[in-house]
Amino acid sequence: MKIVVLVKQVPDSGAERTLRSDDNTVDRGSASNIINEMDEYAIEEALRLREAHGGEVTLLTMGPEKAAESIRKALSMGPDGAVHVLDDALRGSCAPATSKVLAAALGTLEPDLVLCGAEATDGRVQVMPHMLAERMGVAALTGARKLTVDGTSLTIERQTEEGYEVVTASTPAIVSVWDTINEPRYPSFKGIMEAKKKPVQTLSLADLGIPADEVGFAGATSEVVEFARRPLRSGGTKVTDDGDGGVKLVEFLATEKFV
Amino acid sequence: MSEVLVVVEHAGGAVKKVTLEMLTLARELGEPAAVVLGAPGTAEGLTGKLGEYGATKVYVAEHSDVDGYLVAPKAAVLATLVKDVSPAAVLLPSSQEGKEIAGRLAVKLDNGLLTDAVAIAADGTATQAVFAGSTIVTAKVTRGLPLVTIRPNSVTPTPAPATPEVSTVDVAVDESAKLATVVERVAEAKGARPELTEASVVVAGGRGVGSADNFAVIEELADLLGGAVGASRAATDSGFYPHQFQIGQTGKTVSPQLYIAIGISGAIQHRAGMQTSKTIVAVNKDAEAPIFDLADFGVVGDLFKVVPQAAEEIRKRK
């Protein structure tokens, strides 16, 4: 089974993040850049499928030069290689343009299965799998908390507000996963050493046959008009419980008309 | 005035609150027209409520294909409808499915999209809270019509009674939209509590609660306030409470009128999911916990003393 895992480098969600004041894009210098956490679960799921069914696992990322660091890090978990779509003209790409580029790159890889995280911690938009499916004419099984593969048949449990849905499709397909699906492994020392030698292919827009004006700022379908830091909340009243903390809490709720 | 399509979110035969919020917002942009997508018989019970909140039209797209396959048929029906009626804007709920439909629609129509909006101006410019609610962004679609998903609990729904004209939409879904088959829908018990993302009161427990059994303390307070129960990632990862109730960067984002954080330190991971709550109350034994920096009212103390006492006090006042 040929599996491609989509990986995105994002600013660490555990640090303070911001946008750049010059072009309103994510400021990749404001926080350290890491692999989107949810993607690690997708990589783990791919590795487990390779262990069970054989095949190969390739990572696919679109991002600036420094995304290469995250690719090496992700490779240390065990994937066989990676493809990095790298082109200056991609800067400022909106979600539809990003899906156009990733769909073209996936077209060159011809995977049976594409795995990705259910959302990225920077944008939290959740649209990429269905945008790709729409462009590629394949099934998208999204929001999986469980994935079962039986030959060419895929079944997921999709988490919903009310419970879950059991959804099936045949390969080729795209599956996105939540962090409830598995527990990602830590890279071993051997894995880290091997990752340095694994093949990483770089593809440009020209390689993919996509005109530069269809992506990046030139091809953007939406734009950020302005942004501002939300005023920090200031702590209000803080009391120490002297045996009447619960009563005081309810008194506060009463003044705010919650009880 | 042009129509504004509002894609109705419904469950268990009832309209969800976010739909009423969207109808309220849609009035600023044009004439609200609700779109009901579902199995045959879905719309009948929803139309009254939709009219009460200002829908002048209800488009009904009912077919077993619409809910028999994941997402794609809904996007296909909507794309045809958008081409037919040329609306001023399309609003969808910022649920997972709402965003997924919007994503497909954007590709089909070669249109931009904005997700997780908390407000929308008359010209379609949307306001979004990003990076754990720390940054407020205004953005607009620059290709096509405003295609925007709205986060629950963004506005207070206000009634504006109308008698909607019901219009049946032809559902013709081709095979390419039938690749992901929904074979079963399983409801998981969640009791009588309101849904987490829509609740106006949320009581959440963290690592400090200590065990699954102890979550009864959280549930009791939530029930007395008519609220939903949430949990921090530390609590769900420890198995104290089911994962679907996790609030934070990797879980749900909530924005209730009242958020009570109990035994939650307030790491960025958690704040990402609750920072935009209107009023925040915290109970924690650590006076230095970062949650107190956000709290309008905080109690430093043992949650097992403070919370049951608060519950008792509420009972007394009732």
Word description of this protein:
The complex is a heterodimer of chains A (259) and B (318). Chain A is α/β, with parallel strands linked by helices. Chain A has seven helices and 13 strands. In chain A, the strands form two sheets. Chain A has a nine-stranded mixed β-sheet, sandwiched between helices. Chain A has a two-stranded antiparallel ribbon with strand order 2-3. In chain A, a hairpin with a 3-residue loop joins strand 8 and strand 9. In chain A, helix 2 crosses helix 5 (189-195) and helix 3 packs across helix 4. The radius of gyration of chain A is 22 Å and the shape is globular. Chain A starts with a strand and ends with a helix. Chain B is α/β, with parallel strands linked by helices. Helix content of chain B is 27%, strand content 27%. Chain B contains ten helices and 17 strands. Chain B has helices at 17-26, 47-52, 64-68, 72-85, 96-109, 215-224, 233-237, 268-271, 291-294, 303-317, and strands at 3-7, 10-11, 14-15, 31-38, 57-62, 89-93, 114-120, 126-130, 135-141, 147-150, 165-168, 181-187, 201-205, 228-231, 258-262, 279-284, 297-300. A nine-stranded mixed β-sheet of chain B has the order 9-8-7-10-6-1-4-5-11, sandwiched between helices. In chain B, strand 13, helix 6 (215-224) and strand 14 form a beta-alpha-beta unit. The radius of gyration of chain B is 21 Å and the shape is elongated. Classes of the chains: A alpha/beta (259), B alpha/beta (318). At the A-B interface, helix 3, helix 4, strand 7, strand 8 and strand 9 of A face helix 5, strand 7, strand 9, strand 12 and strand 16 of B. Strand 12 (222-229) of chain A pairs antiparallel with strand 9 (135-141) of chain B, so a sheet runs across the interface.
